[in-house]
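Revision sheet: structure tokens.
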Amino acid sequence: MKNVRNANYLQIDNKTSQIYGKNGVEILPSNLAWEKYNWVKKYFSRKPKQGYFIWIKEKVDTPLFTCISIARRNIKQKLQNLLVVEKGVKANLFGTCNALKKNLAGSHKTEGKIILKQGSVLKYEHLHSWGQKDFVSQNYEFFLEKDAKLDYTYKILFSSKNLKTKTLIILSKNSSVNFNIAGNFFQTKAEIQDTLILKEKNASGIVKLRLVGDKGSDICARSKVIAESESKGHLDCQGLLVSKDAKISLIPELICKNKQAQITHEAQIGKISEEELTYLRMRGLTEKQAINLIINGFL
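Predicted:
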């Protein structure tokens, strides 16, 4: 819970513990935003019970920070989040979701929508750190209007027992996205699904996956790029197996509906090179230290 005292939105278990706003930014629990603004309702399938609403109306010089934690056993979180970045605004967001102890057997389910208005820019770093008995499910949708730009990184620092992620990114004219997922999985059943839709002319996007399969992990990642107009997209999916009983499946899919579009992909699953391992051990590292260094470099 790094810098939790400075968190702009803090939720522990099922209670909002802190909201700290800034000039030009409105932050509310999602249920209160539902009651305050009628336009918010079109982004939710139902009235939210938990989660945050962040409306960035003006440029913010410092990053916004959200933190959602599980602190007690068997807690079930069901979050509905909404982030709106207004026209021409640049913003940075750092979000972390975690379990404060290893064996809490908690459930963390999130539905989120991120709206980038025309010409807006968002850099969003999203970190997860869980215990080995937790269940995690997240479903995010990103909507980029004309000329909007998104740089999104999702890192799994410590994996849960079960992980399901589903991401949809829809790009309008001249908008662009750099979308990254990186995770080191240990005794995890993981299902990762992301879809990039290049909807309008000159939209562009890159999707990068870096997935490490450690002991007892079963990882299935399905990545899809759909080009509906003259646009460019690329998938870069890479897996690294570090345990004999781990499994990684990478399933890239390209769908082109416009002859002027250019979409490509590369997919690769490998293992740690014996040459790299030997080289690092000759430099004084233990085998474990060498493996950790190689994994960190890969991620």
